[in-house]
Amino acid sequence: MKIKNYINQKLKQGAVHVTLIDPSRQAPEAAGRLAETAQEVGSDLIFVGGSTGVAQHTLTETAHVVKQRASIPVLFFPTGTDSISFNLDAFLFLSLLNSRNSKFISGTQSKISSILKRLDLETLSVGYILVEPGMKLGEIGEADLVARDNFWQAIGYALTAEFMGMSYVFLEAGNGAAQPVPAGMIRAVKRELTVPLIVGGGIRTAIDARRVRQAGADIVVTGTVIEAAGYRERLRSILSALKD
Ligand code: 1GP
Which CATH number is 72's domain given? Predict the structure, then answer.
């Protein structure tokens, strides 16, 4: 419960920001520097993962270096990959609720749950919902994407997650999406939920971040924004939009 408590404490103070580090996008050392910068500008958590087809050794090494360089919690984010990291602070136990393939809903999870139990690794259960455009994650996860104007379907999945006892609901537009999940959808889902709402995908600017936050996102995830030059300033402005 250590990480969950940490997040709860942070949520009492306002929005929580997560920096997603994709191990396939840079060398482990560079990932370590990104983690350090993320922490320095005020990110609350780091997710490592989210890549399609990252080699196990790259993931393990990246996780190791990121953990060394950052003192904020680092969580494993297991989307679209068979590689797994057990050496972080907690494990996002994600179920892709709108997948057509049961492997992504509970199949893969059932193969690793005993290991997680034996390792005594903290798990955070997340109802993961892919919204258009979904990007590569939508393809790999064989998702029946929620249409951007179908607020009722988004609410339906989000409440399903809550009624199933999941700790978080995650509305995901996909890594590298041109736009975030629509503000109207976030607002509609947030109105019905009691568990914290995570929103990610396509959030690149302070304006995006503020819009998503004001619509009701409790936890905001950004990834791509750190993958180009000038990322420190961009991240800083996103953080100030979220924390002011
Ligand atoms: C994590 O997929 C997101 O939830 C990250 O998306 O890379 O578009 O920020 P971006």
Answer: 3.20.20.390
